[in-house]
Amino acid sequence: MNTHQWMSTRFFSFFLTWGIFLPYWTGWLVHTKELSVTDASFIMSMGLVARGLSTLFAFPYLSGKFSNKIILQGAGIGTLVAVLCYIPAQSFSSLLLVTIFFHFFYPPLMPILDTAAGTLVQNNQLKHYGKSRQWGSIGFVSVGIILSLFIALLGDDVIYYALLLGVAVLVYLGFREAPAVLSQKPAANPVETSGWLKMFHMKHFWLVLLIVILLQAAHASYYNYGYLYLQEINAPGYLIGVIINIAVLAEIVFFSNADRSFKRFSIGSLLTIAAFGSTLRWILVFAFPNVIMFSIAQVLHACSFAMAHYAFMKYLIRNVPPAQVPKVQGLYSALALSWSTAVFTLFGGFLYEIKPGYAFLGMIVCTLPAVVLALRYRSIEVK
């Protein structure tokens, strides 16, 4: 198996499970564990806090001690144990503890895989990041469409067993052969791994990071309440998975063409388009609370998520030394994909209880500043 196939398979297998967890887990907590929306959103937010701690501190530290393959195996085993712990958990406190444990191991698999992809690109063993990453999106779509049919037939209990099966497969793949560069124990280099302050010397790093933090945080309501909101606006149960995965289909199209179509676009231009697209997306969902407009707005996921993520990866590959990649990935995952999302999950849950549509409109408090900052970065990045 060549490196492109290896990376594509790992992206596919992880995002297969992510396609179960991300859209449906809050709904599973509400419907199967009988939590209120407020309690479920608090539990998921605390999980995101744990995710941030794991990716910001544990992942970079372990990356300096162990190979990427060993870290991938350890995170997979920890995830499987955590999923099994959900079976006996019934009370609010036990579900909170299990969710924190689960988030310590499971979401960090994403930066682990992105770090692997970045390492392969920098070592000229992977030509196109986007073409491998699109298989993650394909996995997400595949399971979402199939799972929605099973949920309609068997109920929300099937969400748990689908995740359990997917994680078991992920663990199995983690013990298969990996590219040699990912199996190598990192060499100690005190100059290159001297600390977090080294990131301040990377040109415009903190401005780029702030923009992607805002853009990723703006997905908090969609990730946690999109499934519930579609039920609220009377979307047919058997179509909910299809509607959710319109976003990922748009993501697939973007990633499959990104390396070619956006090769000449500056990072600032990509971030600016992403910020405008994200703002438009949440305004449309609020202004037109119906299934058709929600479905149309899903196409803008190609801008709000995929383009923002691609722009950051493009910045990372161009500007970040290999020894600093795990720290940068950890910082990105902690701040953009975890802690900021945790804050806006609580904010979105508060708004959702007032009126479901407000949870989505409220996300423009992230996207509008992102527009201003992206335009600013676009004007200075070439200077």
Automatic annotation (TrEMBL):
InterPro entries in the cross-refs: HcaT-like (IPR026032), MFS_assoc_dom (IPR024989), MFS_trans_sf (IPR036259)
NADP found in the keyword field: no
Subcellular location(s) per record: Cell inner membrane
Entry keyword annotation includes Transmembrane: yes
Membrane topology: Multi-pass membrane protein
Major facilitator superfamily associated domain span: 6-358
Keywords of this entry: Cell inner membrane, Cell membrane, Membrane, Transmembrane, Transmembrane helix, Transport
Pfam families for this protein: MFS_1_like
SUPFAM superfamilies: MFS general substrate transporter
TM helices/strands, residue ranges: 12-30, 42-63, 70-89, 95-113, 134-152, 158-175, 205-223, 235-255, 267-285, 291-312, 332-352, 358-377
Protein name: MFS transporter
Source organism per UniProt: Alkalicoccobacillus plakortidis
